[in-house]
Amino acid sequence: MSKYFGSAYQFGTLGGILSLVAFGVMSWLQPDPTNLNLIFGYVITPVSIFLALKYFKDYSNNGYISFSEGMSVGFVTYLIIGLISGLGIWIILLIFPDFFESIKASKLEVLESSRETIVSQVGEESYQSTLTNVKAMVPFDIALNDTIWKIIPGLFFSIIISIILRKNPN
After folding, report:
1. Which residues cross the membrane (predicted)?
2. Distances (CA, A) of 17 to 36, 84, 120, 156
3. In the predicted model, is pLDDT for residue 152 greater than 80?
4. Of 1, 26, 33, 82, which one is least surrounded by beta carbons within 10 A?
5. Is the pTM of this model over 0.90?
């Protein structure tokens, strides 16, 4: 089992920690670091998956990797990234409730400034529903959103990278 997932544990943990560091650094740069952290996740997730698959292929599997092995190692990698990042963000927001409130206020401000555009595109009822949901937001919601947006793209990155690195013994 460690043959298959040793590299996934290493690079998934590294990616999750880097994502948390990015969240912390971006929180000093602006009041709502969540959107930039998602963008950073689109960079760190494929890099971590690539490194985990390349390491597995070169050092654990004699230079070969099948598509299914790539998908398995990739799955564990992006799952670990998402869980570490989401859990860390949740803990940070619980420890610093004022920080959470500033993120929430920023999201409400963006929603209010975009009101006309949103209402014209999806209607007043959808806008009011979104406004109610943002007002009821808790720290776990932000953490869950971050986790989901690390896992979903991770699936697609794993597919692409597994195809690129695939090499079966003949």
Report:
1. 7-29, 35-53, 73-96, 147-165
2. 16, 7, 40, 21
3. yes
4. 1
5. yes
